[in-house]
Each structure stands twice: as C-alpha cells, then as structure tokens.
Amino acid sequence: QVQLVESGGGLVQAGGSLRLSCIGYGFDFKSAGMRWYRQPPGKEREWVASIIDAGDITNYTPSVIGRFTISRDNVKEILYLQMNNLKPEDTAVYSCNTETYWGKGTLVTVSP
Fold this sequence. Notes:
single chain, mainly beta, seven-stranded mixed beta sheet, 11 strands, 0% helix
C-alpha cells in the first residue's frame, strides 16, 4: 500500500525557514519522480517543485526559485523541501505526490 507522510510544517515569521519532509512507503521510491504541491487557504492546489528519480534534475514554480530547494534521500526514502526567506503568500498546506498518490499534507503558516 502506497503511503506518503509529510511533516515539518508550522508557524514561522516572514523571512524564516522550514524544512518539510515526506516519507514514502509501499513503492519503489528510488525510481519515482516526486513533486511538492501546495494549497493556499481558499485557493486551488498548485505545483511547487519536482525532482526526478536520481535527484539531479529539479524544477520550480517561478515564485519560489532562489528560495526553495527540493531534494531527496533515496536510501532513507525521504523527499525534502527546504524553504528559506518565507513570505506570507507561502502560507498553504504542502503535500507530496508521486503518480496518482498524495500525502495528507502539512500546514505552513507564515506571519507578516
């Protein structure tokens, strides 16, 4: 059974940092492309970042370039999202995804 479990969210002031983690279970993690999405309050879910199976190619939505870094540890089977210089507009529930599978998400709240 495929499971994705996120953690690391919380309340942070603008300019602060958080690192999100997503542990994958029940699938061949090292062979899976992985993505982070977020859903701001009252808005639709949006793609944030992607990383290929080997981890050496990444892509980001323009609003997070230079601030967020997606990475992965294929031995521990964990996906990360390092978020620096956070802004109030980054407030959202962040979820990890592979193929058609989604985690339940972790809430990030950035105060002004």
